[in-house]
Amino acid sequence: MLSVRGLSKTFGPKRVLDGVDLDLATGESLVVIGGSGTGKSVLLRCILGLETPDAGEILWRDRPLAEGRAEFMDEFGMLFQNAALFDSLPVWRNVAFRLLRQMPKARARDIAVEKLARVGLGPEVADLYPAELSGGMRKRAGLARAIAADPRVIFFDEPTTGLDPIRAATINELIRGIVDETGATAITITHDMSSVRAIADRVALLDRGRLRWQGTVAQMDTAQDDYLRDFIAGRARPMARGPALDLAPDPTLGRE
Ligand SMILES: Nc1ncnc2c1ncn2[C@@H]1O[C@H](COP(=O)(O)OP(=O)(O)OP(=O)(O)O)[C@@H](O)[C@H]1O
Predict the structure, then answer these.
(1) Ligand 1 mean position to 206 CA, how many Å?
(2) Which parts of the chain register pLDDT below 50?
(3) ipTM exceeding 0.90?
(4) Edge-to-edge, what's the strand order for the sheet holding 14-24?
(5) Structure pTM?
(6) What total of structural domains would you count in the chain?
(7) CATH of the domain at 79
(8) Among 8, 10, 11, 192, which residue has the most ligand 1 atoms within 8 Å of its CB, making it the best to mutate?
């Protein structure tokens, strides 16, 4: 359904994506993992058309995505990192944002309330403003917005960032439930291994702009790849260079 072929992207002297190939079947849930700065967001932005790749192509239903972008945009939903709700709009208008262009207000509101219920938020939340919600509720509202127009492909950008482990588990379960129920194709980018285990049919590890490893969660647990094993276990990599107290280590350090 969605294929990425030889995708490369450079910013100045920095090659961020270096020939990435990915294939997603209809209804499949792919989780892309990788350390900070390995190109996960740039990959997502290229698929969404927010960055122009230097080389390679993205195919949507076997056609170049660039040719069918309008159709693609009608069929995609996205949960943004930090939910990205409009502060000046009540929750229901955030959820119904796209629907309001397609149908009467009362119908759009009904669908928004229905989608809020699907993510565990009662009708009383519909008229609140985002500032009145907790972080977990904002995430849920963002999820309701992502599924409001019944998308066929959904992107989840760091869905559990900023949530405690219990709320993160709830969001992961909601995502998996929604993907199963709707049969939507899903791409999630995350560092959170609990999301990987809850959401993924298949896992892809990006490393320095390349797809280093991909497989199922079961294959991931027995894979021999050193970097993948350290990533799963949350083990520090030896620092090959750089300051001893670098709190944001260069992801390229310490790898063969
Ligand atoms: N518009 C841009 N201009 C210049 N450099 C950029 C731009 N966007 C991304 N980069 C660089 O590309 C690299 C990859 O960034 P990206 O945001 O994709 O990383 P990531 O894997 O999503 O990291 P994180 O997990 O921390 O969000 C980084 O070094 C970043 O500084």
Answers:
(1) 12
(2) 240-256
(3) yes
(4) 14-24, 2-11, 55-60, 63-64
(5) 0.87
(6) 1
(7) 3.40.50.300
(8) 11
